[in-house]
Amino acid sequence: MKETETLCPCGSGEKFNTCCEPIISGKTAAPTAERLMRARYSAYAVHNIDFIISSCVREKGENSIDAEETRRWSEESEWLGLTILRTEKGGENDTNGIVEFTAAYKRKGLKDVHKERAEFVKEKGRWLYKSGNVTPVTIMREGKKVGRNESCPCGSGKKYKHCCGR
Predict the structure, then answer these.
(1) pLDDT tens digits along 60-97
(2) For 20-69, how does the pLDDT look when each residue is reduced to its tens digit (9 = 90+)?
(3) Residue 92 main-chain phi, psi, to 5 deg
(4) Cβ–Cβ under 8 Å, residues 122 and 129
(5) Phi, psi (rounded to 5 degrees) for 70
């Protein structure tokens, strides 16, 4: 299927090439904090880590994003969906906003839901992710539990107890 025919990962119901792709590619700026959040989720789903990094507030001399670990998480995960729970401010005429959301994904056979209350700021007319408070959620296993002496489901060829089961 052509990229122009695929639905956007953000769950808007729009095509990717008219929804989040123009924001991720830099062709257009996100008009609201929620649209930036949707583009950031889509960037994880399409593994565009450069956009994730560039859409964050950067304090002078500070680089707290581990690009390689972020890339690994993005690529090893199957992105299952984004749900916007609520927004506060973050409109086209605001300078700050909050987006509370959940992002569901599956990694190494475990389904997880990342729940966060994210703060956004608009600097020089551009929305940026500032910080977030993550709410712990329960991870749900899909399928049967892997025994310690069984082969690890990650495909390493090792026993589970010597690999991901440590």
Answers:
(1) 655 578 899 999 999 999 999 999 999 999 999 999 99
(2) 999 999 999 999 999 999 999 999 999 999 999 999 998 765 557 889 99
(3) -60, -30
(4) no
(5) -65, -40
Q: Which residues neighbour 120 within 8 Å (Cβ) at sequence distance 6 or greater? A: 33, 36, 37, 90, 96, 97, 98, 99, 127, 128, 129, 130
Cβ neighbourhood burial of 26 (10 Å; 0-12, 13-18, 19+): exposed
Residue 124: how many CA atoms within 13 Å on its side-chain side? 2
